[in-house]
Amino acid sequence: MAKSTAQTDFVREWQLSAIGRRLLREGREFAKVRRIVVAARKVSAQRGLSGARMDQIARSAGVNKALSYYYFRSKEELHRFALETMIAQVCVAMDSPEVLAMPPTERACALVNTTFDFGMRNPAYPRLVLRGMMSDRRRLHWMVVSYHRPLHLRVAETIREGIALGQFRPVDPDQMVFTIFGMIQHYFATGPLASEICKRNIWLPRNVAERRAAVLDFIRHGLFVPDPISH
After folding, report:
1. At what angle are helices 30-51 and 125-136 packed, to 10 degrees?
2. Residues of the chain by 3-state class (helix, strand, coil), percent to 5
3. What is the CB-side half-sphere exposure of residue 126 using CA atoms within 13 A?
4. Superfamily the domain 95-230 falls into
5. How far, in Å, are 4, 166, 170, 219 from residue 160 at the CA level?
6. Full-model pTM
7. What is the pLDDT of residues 171-218, one digit of tens each?
8. 185 close to 130: Cβ distance less than 8 angstroms
9. Of the residues 53, 135, 181, 230, which has the maximum number of CB atoms within 10 A of its CB?
């Protein structure tokens, strides 16, 4: 049952990507593609896109190099698919009818919770993006145009809406978006360092829950207009 659920979740992620939809149409073998993608995320997080080689990825996945090229036309396509199936999860969640129907205050909290859930499911994502940006940011231009910029603009618009309704303080929307994402992504991106500083494993669910609660508390006090009834 667990394997079936994992396969369903992974195939659902494929459907968020044009590359994934092509793999589904071509009937590619799920288990082997999944191993290659998981290995690509691991190796690229360690070495960056430039340093990650297809033979290393194939060896980590337990398949031969030729099979990797059979499923993916290039290393760049594999890297894009590995990233796209992760970041698309956040964008789809934030565009859901349930979230869009929420008032700005609840939508802001939904963003925080969605991003924390994403970070727990995809611990390699911050390092993948940081390594890519440090090597050659042009490699990730497609992700900025297709995902990061639209997501940033949607969240900034939520903040503007909250300000107009008197629910949020008159903050700079763009700066607040950077602050919200930064407070969460920095936690996950610096996991090993933060664990050493705090002398505890920051990835443990109870520790992530504490960080989530702290960020939500900061948002409520730094962004929300205080409820006069409670003061």
Report:
1. 40
2. 80, 0, 20
3. 19
4. Tetracycline Repressor, domain 2 (1.10.357.10)
5. 42, 10, 9, 15
6. 0.79
7. 999 999 999 999 998 898 888 888 999 899 998 999 999 999 999 999
8. no
9. 181
